Amino acid sequence: MSVLPFIRGVDFTKNDFSETFPSSMRQMSRVQWLTLDRTQLAEIPEELGKLQKLEHLSLNHNRLEKIFGELTDLTCLRSLDLRHNQLKNSGIPPELFHLEELTTLDLSHNKLKEVPEGLERAKNLIVLNLSHNHIEIIPTPLFIHLTDLIFLDLSHNRLETLPPQMRRLINLKSLDLSHNPLELFQLRQLPSLQSLEVLNMSGTQRTLLNFPTGLDSLANLSELDLSHNSLPKLPDCVYNVATLVRLNLSDNEINELSAAVELWQRLESLNVSRNQLVALPAALCKLPKLRRLYVNDNKLNFEGIPSGIGKLGALEVFAAANNLLEMVPEGLCRCGALKQLNLSCNRLITLPDAIHLLEGLDQLDLRNNPELVMPPKPSEASKATSLEFYNIDFSLQTQLRLAGAAVPPSMPAAAATPKDSTARKIRLRRGGPRSEGDQDAAKVLKGMKDVAKDNEAGCLPEEAAGKPESLKPKRWDESLEKPQLDYSKFFEKEDGQQPGLTIWEIENFLPNKIEEVVHGKFYEGDCYIVLKTKYDDLGLLTWEIYFWIGNEATLDKRACAAIHAVNLRNYLGARCRTIREEQGDESEEFLALFDTEVIYIEGGRTATGFYTIEEMIHITRLYLVHAYGATVHLEPVAPVYSSLDPRHAFVLDLGTHIYIWLGERSKNTLNSKARLMAEKISKTERKNKCEILVERQGEESAEFWQGLDMTPEEVAAAEPLKEHVPEDYQPVQPRLYQVQLGMGYLELPQVELPEQKLCHTLLNSKHVYILDCCTDLFVWFGKKSTRLVRAAAVKLSRELFNMMDRPECALVMRVPEGNEMQIFRTKFAGWDEVMAVDFTRTAKSVAKTGANLTQWARQQETRTDLAALFMPRQSAMPLAEAEQLEEEWNYDLEMMEAFVLENKKFVRLPEEELGHFYTGECYVFLCRYCIPIEEPEPGQEDGANPQDDSKASNSNQPEDEIQCVVYFWQGRNAGNMGWLTFTFTLQKKFKAMFGEELEVVRIFQQQENLKFMSHFKRKFIILTGKRKDKALTADGKAPVEFFHLRSNGGALTTRLIQINPDAVHLNSAFCYILHVPFETEDDSQSGIVYVWIGSKSCNEEAKLIQDIAEQMFNSPWVSLQILNEGDEPENFFWVALGGRKPYDTDATYMDYTRLFRCSNERGYYTVAEKCADFCQDDLADDDIMILDNGEHVFLWMGPRCSEVEVKLAYKSAQVYIQHMRIKQPERPRKLFLTMKNKESRRFTKCFHGWSAFKVYL
């Protein structure tokens, strides 16, 4: 059954009805008020003509040009608001004013050139607004018939005169004639308007000649506006209006105010800005109720402000900008109620010292006073500078303590000044003047003595009566204090304050008040609390409290009924006891509470508080993460491939898995927020059982595409993602409705938003709200809302959902109070932010939003983890240990098959290319391990025969464990198509062969694990480009190839990497291979290969690089030469390297290099150390890295790191330098800043095989 016929009022403000108007509006046959403001209407919908009971209609801020037809049929219409449209006289039918019930009409801000025809027939009009039109004359009959007008606004028109019949408006209380050319009109009708309270004559060309002299005869006038006129002084009749409360005299030519201002004893607001005043009268200080005084843009100096201004005890606002003030009277600082003080654009030199004593001052504007010197503030406790960044203490002592490290003895934990005992003795002997601390202590002692004397004097009468205080110790239960409990979340203020009967039912452990119409009707599966309130003989309130137990009620309802009955007694402060009543065994006193016989109903109406385990049904949803204002929102979009945008981050919610998709140009701030949003959803809605996965564009997993119903073929054939989200994208402004239920009707008004911000404090526990976000519609149930309102809201939400045009992904969701989902919370500003302090903003900007950082800091410590900075550096693996591991892992290796991606499919890798990896290729290695099972040592058991044991062992020998591991190696310049091809082709074949025993490991260039590296026996070669693409120089010649052999952190991580042929890369501590090709007429690959041995390189690497060179260039056309450092030939070697250049002669930095990653992706700031075998790809664009090479500490900033990460990383680097200064005083570090693609040679030499950064396509 539809609830639309029961709706009495609804507010559709800011809905877009420009294309279609809801046809279901016809069903609202009982609607009495309807608001259609800002709905883009260009004409009156025909559905409005069917609403015969409509009384109040608002259509302001639309595009209406005519209102013919439908509105004239609304016989019950009382108020009509049509302001801010495009109405002309021809578009208003005269029949509209035949509506006898019409009392309020607003036609302001339209295009009317004259008063609408037939308006004089609307004799019952009380409010008429014709302002901001082009009306030139008021017809005489208008005021003859409209004698009941109370409010009349004719401002901003072209009126030059008014009809004399205006004196007939004896009931008029508000008249606005502002901004009309009434220079020749003297307003002689004003004295007849004795009921007038508000008069606005701003901009009506008033002078002393045409000013209405009978103004003082208006005995009820409280507000007068004479601004924007040409008055040189204030007429005497204005001083005589003693009833004035607000007076505006701004933008005139007034040069003085008379002492007669003291007659305005009721005046609260006075505005004399933009005049010619030189001084304010002293009589102004006699206005006891004056709260706001504006004197901006005058000629006031120090003498012009009366010294007695401090007598204005009620003054809250004083504005004196753009004057000639050099000082202000000290009396101004005695205005204790002052909240706003504006002294900008003056000639201030200083201010009174008492300016700092204005505790209630909220706004102090002193701009554009170049010579101003502020008086010193009272002494304040100095704030700790170590807490400068987001409540994080970056002092070395604190961070060492947090990391669990010992504080060095040279750095005391507390820098307290030791006491000087000798100076103290001398001070005591001399008996000199006391310090401020001693004086304060003396005052405290004196105060304690005075309090003791007062207590002693108060006890004298009791002691005289012979009642000394008992010294007997109290019992343990007597000394207990009753805890202060808050029962307001269970019961309301009015409960138990009026005679009558109040009943609550127990639902989800809480009491819920029920309607009076169902009193005496109890469900057998429920429990109830019954309160009877009445007056006793002395006129005091008394209470009777019962809790009724149904026979079929669950245990939680029974217990909660008893508990909350006691809570109700404590809440009311009643002395009665709670009485238990059971179904079928009620007392006569309980049955007497009801006028009719008690009725039992089978079943239960409320839900039990015990959880039932049900299989949750999750709907796949895709959210666009975007910033709007100061918060981050999740906007639902269609879960399809085309919804993704490379400039944004998206969250794909599959229920048990949440994928965070990061576009290649998405902002780091939104990426971090997306991660934190997903963490919040998992924690609050999925009980931390949801797996969160991050997917970067171009590196998506197969499971992610399956979540979007994409097959591998569709992914490969899909077009590149387009940037379809507008640059100025703004979501639809949410509309918050409050569901109101009366006797047989429903109302749906919109909640007024303070400062146009949706705040969660607007939600009241007693009510039910509907939040319409266009893409989603939420129904929020307050804990104290009634069941009938909830049921009505659910039905009404469905009607509202179907009434508007919405995307296919839109949903209706129910939101109980206290269990709000994260997507619902993001619609409200500042509600349960993912992080208490936004790490993407500065502390000042966060404070401007109204957040109380001090209070937050007390409630929660800012979590950080800098322990990695104080951990010792990872030492290199000894050669013997590396060789042992290599031998063991290769012993377990039974078989290894290698494949390479070629023409979109994997083919076997030729045996001679094993160990050669190209940066533009993808490789697959299928490794089969045979791991022997360790047998227990044979023991000589009692009576055992060794020969029998040997026979048994031969027959029952355990089989070795077989492990199958697939390594997928991806080069730095290789795309992700290889991974997708492997996932959907080769991996499936391997799984069919080996089943669940198969393990897949995806590894990237220079990020290989040790076990994989060991299979190549230190002959791991990385070449630039692709296997079958012959690289050529710009002039078509074969290029020079230059290789660098290096081990990072041990012999197992030895690699030979091709680098740019340049002599600056040489180092005496390493070995290199230089291949110089010769130009030949045929295709024979002839040339010369130099093996360059550094003077400080180790013998093992020298021997290894010779073996590698012989295997790589095993050709009769290539000659191999071994060169020791210093024996290089000039002709080929240095020419191939671009000429002789200075290079490093040692690599001591290899013993000190450390790389740290600074990030807040976990929701708090952390520093983590990369392993010793780090590479260039470890430099993440989203983070900041700290690199230590033993001489310098580099702060490397990624292009997408946040501003606050830079600040926190900078402080972390300083702490690290201080720590290393203590640990290694012989090697002081200096801090340097570097950015991506701007790294110096001192930075890049710490990375093996440095080249251009990877470009994401």
UniProtKB/TrEMBL annotation:
GO MF annotation terms: actin filament binding; phosphatidylinositol-4,5-bisphosphate binding
GO CC annotations, alphabetized: actin cytoskeleton; cytoplasm; nucleus
Disordered: annotated segments: 938-957
PROSITE patterns listed in its UniProt record: LRR (PS51450)
GO process annotations (BP): actin filament severing; actin polymerization or depolymerization; barbed-end actin filament capping; myofibril assembly
SMART domains in UniProt: GEL, LRR_BAC, LRR_SD22, LRR_TYP
Superkingdom of this protein's organism: Eukaryota
SUPFAM superfamilies: Actin depolymerizing proteins, L domain-like
InterPro entries for this protein: ADF-H/Gelsolin-like_dom_sf, Gelsolin-like_dom, Leu-rich_rpt, Leu-rich_rpt_typical-subtyp, LRR_dom_sf, Villin/Gelsolin
The keyword Repeat belongs to this UniProt entry's keyword annotation: yes
Entry's family note: Belongs to the villin/gelsolin family.
PANTHER family: PROTEIN FLIGHTLESS-1 HOMOLOG, VILLIN
This protein's name: Protein flightless-1
